[in-house]
Amino acid sequence: KLVLLPGVELALKNGAILKVRGPIYSLGTEGKPVKISIQSSADKGLLGSWGGLLVQQSSRESYLNHTIIKGTSFSGLPERQASSGLTGCITFYQSNVQIKQSQFNNLQCEDALNIISSNFTIDRTTIDGSSADAFDSDFSTGNISDSTFIHIGNDGVDVSGSTVNIHSSRFNDINDKA
Question: Is residue 123 pLDDT above 60, yes or no?
Answer without folding.
Answer: yes
